[in-house]
User: Which sequence fits this backbone?
């Protein structure tokens, strides 16, 4: 079991890694703009020009979550500092069976284990999915002009 100080140190290092510019762009796209409704939409993005960003985001969060599942970081401290993992997993969760059929049975297992350990995880994931997509749709809607 890590000490609180050790968990804090690793959390800070994970946070520092998130500031890398390309990972920051990838995370922003994944959370704010990527809203697959079907597995086909998901896999199209995975095989398209955003492939490297998807792998970067999902790989980062699975690696970070693995530190929790292997006991290097306290779960509660991790979730307090990195709630973005919930928003990330809410995009993948509806297709997890299909993803694992394509990429292997352990794909994103650490993310799933960490997120699904939350109380009422399924409901929270659905709330996040709806909120993120609704916010994105609102930003896409044409704005009424002053003289409209």
Assistant:
């Amino acid at each position: 079991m890590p000490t609180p100080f050790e968990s804090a140190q690793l959390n800070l290092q994970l946070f520092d890694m998130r500031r890398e510019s390309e990972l920051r762009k990838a995370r922003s796209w994944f959370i704010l703009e990527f809203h697959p409704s079907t597995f086909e939409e998901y896999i199209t993005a995975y095989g398209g020009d955003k492939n490297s960003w998807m792998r970067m985001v999902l790989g980062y969060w699975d690696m970070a979550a693995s530190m929790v599942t292997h006991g290097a970081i306290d779960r509660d401290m991790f979730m307090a500092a990195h709630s973005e993992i919930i928003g990330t997993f809410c995009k993948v969760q509806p297709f997890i069976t299909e993803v694992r059929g394509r990429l292997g049975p352990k794909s994103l297992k650490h993310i799933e284990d960490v997120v699904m350990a939350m109380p009422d995880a399924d409901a929270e994931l659905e709330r996040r999915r709806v909120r993120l997509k609704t916010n994105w749709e609102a930003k896409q809607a044409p704005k009424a002009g002053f003289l409209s």
User: Anything to note?
Assistant: DSSP finds nine helices and no strands in the chain.
